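Data availability (excerpt). The following record was deposited with the supplementary files.
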Amino acid sequence: MKQDYQEITLVRHGRSSYLLPTHRITAAEFRKWIADYNLAGIAADSLPPTELIGATRNVPYVACSDMPRAMASASLLSPGQAPYALPQLREAGGPVSGDWPVKLPLAAWDRISVFLWTIGLLTSDESVGAARLRAQEAAGKLVRLAEEFDRVLCIGHGMFNALVGQALLRLGWEGPPRVADGHWAATTYRKRAHNTTG
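Predicted structure:
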């Protein structure tokens, strides 16, 4: 029986198995770290919270980014259900480019990259405008899936989930203005289903 509302839950993947560097690194080393991070799954001790498992149990459709950490998270969260992996749900942004003559903590490079990308000065991987368009298209796909399956679970990445959440709000879905971005954090958007009985 169809529900009287549709629901899309965005979840950030579990904590990566790829360790953070404890020393200062160059921009080139940061780019290399990001590349290796993207190939890693999640840490063995990074398990979905019990309440999240309960809240997403029996969700009929599970989508996720095709990055290993998202796919591994989807398998843990919905065991026995093969997730639909979409490259369209990959993380937005990218690391700084160029040979900066300075060494910084990884967190500092990350903040610099995000800031430069957000204001449009970092576009080597994907511009912020292109990422927003991709998020709009991804949100549209999730909406179509929700119209078909009522409830959709989407396991993705912090920054891109935020863009998808903004796109869902623009499409008239109800939910918080900011997507929760901690590991295993979940944010749910809802919309009343159309009355098909007339």
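Summary of structural features: The CA atoms of residues 9 and 188 lie 4 Å apart.
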